Structure formats: structure tokens, C-alpha cells
Amino acid sequence: MLKRVYARVVHAKSSCDGHKERGITFPSKDCQVELLNEFYEECLIPKDDLSFVEAHGSGTFVGDPIEGTAIDEALAQNRKTPLVVGSVKSNIGHTEPVSGICAIVKVSCIIAMETGYIPPNLHFEHPNESIRGLIEGRIRVVTEKTPFDVDKGLIGVDSFGFGGTNSHVLLQARAKRKTNKGVPSDNLPRLVCLSGRTEEAVNCLFEEISVNSLDAEHIRLLHDVFRKDIKGHLYRGYIIMSKSGEIARSIRFPVGSTIVPPLYIVFGELMNWQEVGGQLLKLPIFVEHVKR
């Protein structure tokens, strides 16, 4: 089931530079340039349209000058503005085989494409003199919170491995923009039932719902996630949210209970039952029962 679209994968390509006379960890600038040139020829995307390149950027004396020079030669030569680059490794270190996934999380899933800002690199003070693109201004490292160009929304991601493996992925930001920050047009409160391994985990989800101000897509995602029991989630709870804020919440710790009690809806004294009934008719399951 499709839950959410963070970004579109425009193209992906990898290569290997083969026999390595200088050692298994030594990269090849020529092969990286060749990969990038072939990549953008195949996907028919102008290199100048790139908004940002998330570099492999391992911080080594050998790897960074080679990658930086390859990016400069392949992607930055004819740009009217400097190509903005960065590397999540300056923030979290080198995560070895999952470093490429961390880079994608940085640029698409959580930060750049979600917030509209590229997070800054840490500890960058002086450009490496071996990377002429940095010295001559064709490439610029992000050192401040930088607005992301969402119009074209194109981010290239580098990831390299032992043995001369070169990989590049081009991601494009999703075109959809939320209307009214996802707040629904109706005035119906939303009931969300959650679970977690600890009480703190459930409360954390509750707070996330409150911060998102009744985002209908977020609520639907939580409904899908928690529609079935999750093994090991011993703490259960619910929250009722409206446009004006939180109405109620509860957390409990069921011990060995396997019987699911019925849900009773109690209205109290109805001063305007026609209005309440009209609101309930917006719920498909209520309409089905009325027709039945």
C-alpha cells in the first residue's frame, strides 16, 4: 500500500573502475566523471538544473579532492551560479554501507525536500586547495541554513564504495503542496488509536499529532500503521483532535487482555441533533449503517 511519496527517482546509475593498482580504497576521478556525464546524457536532464549535490564526502585526503574535482569537471563548468554541495557525514560521521541511505534521508525524506532548507555542513572553514572548483567559486559548500530551490527540486546524490564502485542517484522533490497545511475542510474531530513499547513512545506520537495541527494525511497514515495489533506494543492509547486543538487523550497498560470491548458513542443532551446528524453523514461507515 502506498503510504507517502517523498521524492521521485529520476534516474540511477552505477559503475566500477575495475583493477586498482593503487589499492582497493583508491577512487578514480576519470571513472566518476564518466559516470556523471553518461548519467545526465541518459536522463536528459540539463546539469545546470541541479539544485544541490549531496556528495559522498568521506573527509579523506584522497577521496574528497578526487570527488570534488569530478563534480567540478562534470557538473559545474557551465553554470551561471555556483553548484551547492554538502555531505551528511560532517553531521553524523561515516555510516559505511548505509551512508548512501543516510544521504537520501537527509535530502529527501526528512530535511531538504520536507522543510525547504538544506542543512549546513559542520567544520568547513577553508576550501581544499586541491579542489579548484571550490577555490575558483564554481562549487560552494553549504555552511548556513540554505533555502532549497523547490521549483526544479533536483538533487544529485553520490555514494562510493570499496573496490571502485561509483553510484549516483537523481531525486526530484514531489510536486504536491499541501492545501491549508493539510487541515481538513470539515469540522469533525479525529480519533486516533496508538500503541507503543513504552508510555513515552505513545506520548511522543500524541505530541507529534498536536504539533501537526490535525494534518489529515498524517492522521490517515497513523490509522493505516496502527490498524492492526503490533507485537510488543504493550501500551495503548487514544487521542481526539479537532481543528481547535486536543480534546482528550488516554494511555493504559493492558495486562493479558485479548477481548476487544465494543465502542460506545455517547452524546449526552443533544440541543441540535439535526446538525450532529448532518456531521455524522460525512462518515462513510455511518452512511452505510443508516442506509442498511
UniProtKB/TrEMBL annotation:
A Pfam family of this chain: KAsynt_C_assoc
InterPro entries to which the protein is assigned, alphabetical: Ketoacyl_synth_C, PKS_assoc, PKS_Beta-ketoAc_synthase_dom, PKS_NRPS_Biosynth_Enz, Thiolase-like
Highest taxon of the lineage: Eukaryota
CDD domains assigned to the protein according to its UniProt record, in alphabetical order: PKS (cd00833)
Name listed for the protein in its UniProt record: Ketosynthase family 3 (KS3) domain-containing protein
Domain Ketosynthase family 3 (KS3): 1-173
Provenance organism: Molorchus minor
Matching PROSITE patterns: KS3_2
